[in-house]
Write a structure and sequence with these properties.
alpha/beta, 5-stranded mixed sheet, globular
Length: about 280
């Protein structure tokens, strides 16, 4: 795997500040057979000019319109395949990485030919010792899709490479051949759920998903409950999850999904009500 060529795709939409931070961290990588490529998803601000000025040697794919997460990344995957890359990394622009994050991800494929996707340990940028993603679980009887160890201390979990059921699209590595086999992300998912769908399609075809904690990145997601449970985000996640259930759950799993989702939604509903009441009080 030491000679494998890796294409790191960074999707940008009106997010130059985050993208510049991500690209800056990628400059420090210890693995030298990689290329970082920015896919600009039809930004209508000054993102393109700012990124080109700061990183003139980086290749940029400029899209005329916003193709969203799946569509934009699929354009990048097509380009990576045409350029003959062996592996592709889909990396959120609001992340930074450790200099050695690529090597452990590559090693997962070297040890097992059945691996379809590998993913790093992902921590909060604002609190680097707290886990955001430490593996994922999917239960189609309850409709549960979640991260393991979220908000746990890194020092409190077992940092061992292991199989997992779901890998978040924040950062994942795939052989280009495998990504092409599945056609990349399903563009029918407008936002949220694309990564779960890809994970389930991979495992359904006999591939393994591997969580590799020796590789580490940092994600600029809010560590506060309010930041992770905003109203619009919850609505978009719900819509994406309904697509997941309709595509992957059996008909006899739907009654338990509906009951479970009603019960699971109550805590989030209480959080939203509390937030709205607090916001209304502060504005008076």
């Amino acid at each position: 795997m030491g000679d494998a060529r890796v294409c790191i795709l960074v999707l940008n939409w009106n997010g130059a500040d985050d993208t510049l931070g991500c690209l800056t961290s990628l400059q420090e990588l210890s693995y030298d057979k990689y290329e970082a490529v920015v896919i600009d998803n039809g930004s209508d601000d000054d993102s393109v000019s700012r990124i080109k000025q700061a990183f003139p040697k980086n290749h940029m794919i400029e899209l005329e319109s916003n193709l969203l997460y799946g569509g934009g990344n699929n354009v990048g995957l097509k380009w990576a395949a045409e350029q003959g890359f062996d592996f592709v990394v889909f990396l959120n622009n609001d992340t930074t990485v450790e200099p050695d994050f690529l090597e452990p991800l590559l090693s997962a494929f070297n040890k097992n030919e059945q691996v379809g996707i590998s993913a790093p340990l992902m921590c909060y940028s604002a609190n680097p010792d707290k886990v955001w993603y430490g593996g994922g679980k999917v239960n189609l009887w309850t409709g549960t899709i979640a991260h393991y160890h979220i908000r746990d201390s890194v020092n409190s979990i077992d940092l061992i490479t292991q199989k997992t059921e779901y890998i978040t699209g924040c950062c994942l590595m795939m052989p280009v051949s495998v990504a092409k086999e599945f056609g990349g992300f399903n563009p029918a998912f407008k936002m949220y759920g694309e990564d779960v769908d890809l994970s389930l399609r991979c495992t359904g075809a006999g591939y393994e998903l591997i969580f590799v904690p020796q590789s580490r990145i940092y994600h600029k997601v809010s560590a506060s409950v309010g930041g992770e449970y905003g109203f619009l985000k919850l609505i978009r996640k719900f819509r994406g999850m309904m697509q997941i259930y309709s595509r992957h759950a059996a008909w006899y799993q739907w009654p338990s999904i509906i009951i479970s989702q009603i019960l699971f939604s109550l805590p989030n509903l209480m959080i939203l009500i509390t937030q709205r009441l607090k916001s209304g009080t502060e504005q008076r």
